[in-house]
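$ run holo --ligand "threonylcarbamoyladenylate" --emit tokens
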Amino acid sequence: MTERLAAAQLDRAASLLHDGALVAFPTETVYGLGGDAVSDRAVAAIFAAKERPTFNPLIVHVADLAAAEKLAVFDERACAIAGRFWPGPLTLVLKRSTACPISRLASAGLETVALRAPAHPLAQALLRATGRPLAAPSANRSGHVSPTTADHVLDELGGRIAAVLDGGPCRVGIESTVIDLSEAQPALLRPGGVTREQLEAVLGHLGDTGHAGAPRSPGMLERHYATARPLRLAATTVAPDEALLAFGDPLLGAAVTFNLSPTRDLTEAAANLFAALRALDQARFKAIAVMPIPETGLGAAINDRLRRAARGRAN
Ligand code: TXA
Ligand code: MG
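-- output --
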């Protein structure tokens, strides 16, 4: 049985983590499947619970920059970026420091480590109560849509993990932006809660994995965020046997409609995205038609997740 813990039971969550057990916890982006990042056994248990291929490294969560600096090499750029966006929905890939105690398994054998200081008050409280870095990928089974409520976590991982700390729905709703600062040329590995525009205001023009040839982030694997039903993107019409994921004024005639944001607010749309995909992914629909979403700001991250989910179906 997986325990559902209220915010007041934070100490129970911390003591389970201390004992090497797995506890899902809320962050401002999505729920994370947490385990002691220093413990190979806890990290291995995360891979097993998620059924995640072990070549895909995990994000390690810390309370703040001071905790992060013990784990990785921060140059001036990394300090500036962390100072500007932490705590928040941004993950930095950096070279592991020589004495980095993080499990090698969490880095999937790479010489780098992905670090993030989450802004959610419960995540912050949990990190401070456990006093250690927590490895936490999104708390879904590998390839599934990320969870944005404790109920989603229980649907995905109930019976496989010790507990979930319930902090209500996640505010941002889409995963963190991942930026690689381990090499001279910074690279945007995954669009997310902090936009490219926000990062470029600090770093200047950013390359992405496409420029580097082979993907620098295994998380860029295409089969990701899959729904069981096919997604039809940029839909301008909808059939009666389709569910509609709407944005703005909805198309008429769908079997059922979930509107990401009637007012075309991209922040609201990101917060609703994964709950909407879960709600619409039902056997009675032939497909999920998705209305066009602008590619600006958070729209880039929303479209990235939708394209992956659509491609995941194609093979
Ligand atoms: O918002 C988020 O980032 C959520 C919450 C729970 O913090 N976490 C999350 O973790 O989405 P996960 O494990 O599902 O995604 C981690 C991403 C993957 O794309 C992974 O390949 C990449 O980060 N990553 C992790 N470590 C890396 C490394 N050393 N080098 C390159 N990419 C790395
Ligand atoms: Mg994930």
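-- notes --
Residues 210-215 have pLDDT under 50 and may be disordered.
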